[in-house]
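User: Here's a chain of 480 residues. Predict its fold as tokens.
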Amino acid sequence: MGQINPFAASHLALVGQSELHEADLLRPLLRRYGLGGSEHASYPSVDRFAEFFDGAALSRALAMRAPLSALQPLSLDVRVPFCETQCVQCTRETVVGRSRSPVGPYLDAIERELDILAPLVGQSPVVSQMQLGGGTPNFLAAEQLEKLVRGLRSRFSFAAQGDYRIEIDPSRFADEEIHAMASLGFNRMNLGLQDFHPKVQVAVNRVQYEDRTAAVMRTAKAAGFRSVGLELWYGLPTQTRDAFAYSLQRVVDLAPDRINLARYAHDPLRFPAQRLFRRDMLPDLDACIDMLLEARSKLTEAGYVHVGLDLFVRADEDLAIAMRRGRLQRNSWGYSSLAEHDRLGLGLGAISRIGNSYAQNHRALDAYHDRLEQGVLPVMRGIELSRDDIARHAVIRALLGRGEVSIESMEIAYLIDFRRHFADECEQLAAMAEAGLVEMSPEWITLTPQGTLVVRAVCAIFDRYRPREQKIPVFGLVTD
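Assistant: Prediction complete.
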């Protein structure tokens, strides 16, 4: 008879050890499976995109969906890459500096990109979701932001009940600008925040103040924003358990609608700003686990619901309601109460998903401008998904969104014998079932409460592009 699983939800009842704290049971699990791994914003991940997939390939994909453009809504991902300073945790394509001179030409370039796309997207394309981010959108002057949004609205029809999100830096903002954003149709706001502890803020080059952040949140709500979210990072350089607890309490006191508990990933070879920090300046794995478990406990106590990955939301928030009703979706931007639609990316480094293909724009500003001046789409690389990719994408999305996979539904939708097609994966899942992370039946694969904490590791089983020798995700690596 096998050893009793120490991570199963019923363990305490089985062995009568109620004095054991839940965190003591979760720590060994998190040490084994780590906190790293891909969030699978795309599948396959962008490092698998190929340069032979170019603007012509994206044009063909758009032409295939154009006849149904009025019936199939689009999502827009509009990148505004400008930032005054470089934050060390940032992994995006950004243009750093205080000069506003590149903004005008960049907005003109997006207009050219829209002009090229206009005949490709079909008649009366409807947009149900939009995200304006990628850097600091409030780097734009009010009239520049208005010009950008008016250009988008002149080419697309925006759904009345859509989700329109903007990311801002609360350290440099005026109340009238927030009201102007609401008047342009934005109804969700995400505030970039790393940590409230002064020492950590200086280390990551992002100093902002609690009172200013609170004022921005109040103004956003008064202006009519449906949801205001905060990002809180753990694992940052110089961050300690006490420093994180300090910031966590202040975030709870601010009571945002959503809290994204983001993990710092140290990869100095890819991100030069991180070369300022040695490994011994980072909290170790045990410290990061403690931060995660402290946040999970504190946020649950404060009434937040863990909807998946690193996202916690208020119990009355749209995503919590969607989760209770079984309608929670996981798309390229994260969790949503709306169905996943094709996504059109605009601007530097933006990623589109049209049909069964992905395309990424050039990540260097000069290359992005050059391609548009030549009158072609500024696609740098992309990929056409195989039938196997499509099935794996669906399994991963189901695990991330609903926490369960219907085997019969997958077999019907993708014309596969699930257990034969995913024979190796089912063998690995069986080991995870013994560890109490998943429950398996002939009809379903379901995450346990413990499994939701290491869902990246469960999803990684279905990622055929990960190195076969990498049995579990490695803490701290950037993989997406």
